[in-house]
Amino acid sequence: MYTDRLNNSNTCPRVDIGGQAVMEGVMMRAPDRTAIAVRRPDHTIVVKADKYVPLKDKHAWMGWPFLRGMVNMATMLVFGMRTLEDSTAMLGILDEEPTKFEKWLAKKLGKGVDKIVMFFAIVLAVILSLGIFMAVPAAIETALKAAGMSALGYTLIGGIVKIGLLIGYMVLVSFVPDVRRTFQYHGAEHKTVYCNEHGLPLTPENAQTFSRLHPRCGTAFLLIVFMISILLFLVLNVLFPIDNCLLRFLFHLCMLPIVAGTSYEVLKGLAHSESTISKILRWPGLQMQRLTTRTPDDGMLECAIVAMNCALHGLPKGFPKTKEGWVILHSYRESDPNYVPETSEEKTE
After folding, report:
1. Residue 136: how many CA atoms within 13 Å on its side-chain side?
2. Cα 77 from Cα 267, distance rounded (Å)
């Protein structure tokens, strides 16, 4: 039974929670714990939670302004891919027997096939990202410069090409059914974070009332990265003009950490300010999220709520587990620390 004690409880501390949509689920990241909740084909919710110590607590310099943005970019790339790997395993759809080639490959490399595939997926994703969003604009800028265009002109066009490629990519992948569902879980993540930030009980009904657009979203961060890069490279292109396409690409690549560090500080400043200028500046990033989020159904919100509760309070006790140790829930209510199970007497009434 889900009693009124839950609605009167103080179960939603107002701390910044980050998140990530995964296949058929959501990951939530609290200050000291992460939790992943996925909906299996049998409609149960499988959840895991792990404690962690932020790098800034281990090394103080990693929490310094601007440097923390660079650190965050690198760590989130690795952590994000690991989260996708974990969530896919939790779905239980990869339990089929490996082929002879997969067994041979795992034996030779000394790792599981899933880790090998994930490694190559990360490498391929990085190569494609660098090629599409950095090499192509760098080549266009070099060609325009050679044609006699001013630094202002070819820098702006290069930046517009980057943003256009980003928007085009988001539009294209949204037609893939699995990606579209992931975008719905992305919306569920945002709505649940809003619900927690407003101190309301975490229920699908409450969460559904909030916007699916959130100022701290990674999509907004990407747009800010591109806008900051346009401004930075405009200055650098005037001071240090580069004619060679390869050198221009390498130069942009070397400047990426600086762009990321600056963009991170801008995003945090805009997200926590309610001034008129801040609202105006973060508006484009919010609109970009219309491409990467969709309105979730209540079942998706339930997964996000489970992930939120477990990130804040840890795994619930007394529930069955998989052989891997993941907790199996049948309702989002079971993840709340004040959940009271239905008694046998109540069942007979």
Report:
1. 15
2. 18
Tally Cβ neighbours within 10 Å of residue 122. 17
Block residue for tokens 């630094």: 151
pLDDT at 305: 97
Structural contact between residues 334 and 3, judged by C-beta atoms closer than 8 angstroms: no
Listed in order, strand segments (DSSP E) in 61-209 are none
Do 48 and 36 meet the contact criterion of CB atoms below 8 Å apart? yes
pTM, two decimal places: 0.83
CB 315 within 8 A of CB 327: yes
Give which of 38, 41, 2 is closest to 205, Cα–Cα: 2
Buried b (16+ CB within 10 A) or exposed e, 230-266: bebbbebbeeeebeebeebbebbeeeebebbbbbbeb
Provide the terminal-to-terminal Cα distance of the chain, rounded to the nearest Å: 13
Please report the pLDDT score of residue 195 as a whole number.
Answer: 96
